[in-house]
Amino acid sequence: MSGEHASSTVAVRVRRLEERLVAAGVVGDDQLDAILTKLLNGASPVNGARVVARAWTDAGFRERLLADANAALPELGLSMAGGLQEQRLKVVENTRTEHHVLVCTLCSCYPIGLLGPSPSWYKSEAYRSRVVRDPRSVLAEFGLELPDGVTVTVWDSSAESRYMVLPRRPDGTDAMGEEELARLVTREGLIGTAAV
Question: 102: which DSSP letter?
């Protein structure tokens, strides 16, 4: 680690935890590096976009994804494995009357393998504290104005559980195939700070 991130409180805590795990013989530095490399090599919002596009075009997959995302992901060659333990993924679906947005109030827990590395604003204290208290205002700052009748639910990730938003399929996309639809999906849409 280098620069300001290396000295941040979270980075210092993570390094101490790594050192304790290594000292206790639970894992070695090489194993930690291999886990990180494996995780980040395939980490991209393209993965989440593929999941969304499949859910938009395959009702059966959509049902399986919403019921048990961890079991559905292997259908696309994806999984929530990659760390020391598999994380539970819950996919939450935006509808005309419900909108979901993600946060991790304690740190920046996030499904990296499906959404790629988290944006800096996601890790900021301002976002983490404000989106829980006043999600509509925060979403408006991102340019997402929701009608008054839409309920906003904030999902708080943890070390064990991660979330991903299934955005609403845009109108006028009925003739598009999966690849074309996947190109419409943004990382912000998967977090819930954008419509798609």
Answer: E
Burial (CB count within 10 angstroms: exposed 0-12, middle 13-18, buried 19+), residue 20: exposed
What is the chain's pLDDT, residue by residue, as a tens digit (196 residues)?
A: 333 334 456 556 767 887 888 889 888 877 877 766 665 566 789 999 999 999 999 999 999 999 999 999 999 999 987 655 678 999 999 999 999 999 999 877 889 889 988 888 998 999 999 999 999 999 999 999 999 999 999 999 988 899 999 999 999 999 999 999 999 999 999 999 999 9
pTM as predicted: 0.80
- Determine which one of 2, 7, 44, 104 is catalytic: 104
Q: Single out the catalytic residue among 44, 79, 107, 161.
A: 107
Residue 108 falls in the annotated catalytic set: yes
44 classed as catalytic:
no
Question: Catalytic residue at 104?
Answer: yes
Pairing of β 98-103 and β 88-93: unpaired
Give catalytic status of residue 137 as yes or no: no
- How far is residue 194's CA from residue 167's CA, in Å, rounded to a whole number? 9
68 class by beta-carbon count within 10 Å (0-12 exposed, 13-18 middle, 19+ buried):
middle
Q: Which one of the listed residues 2, 7, 79, 109 is annotated catalytic?
A: 109
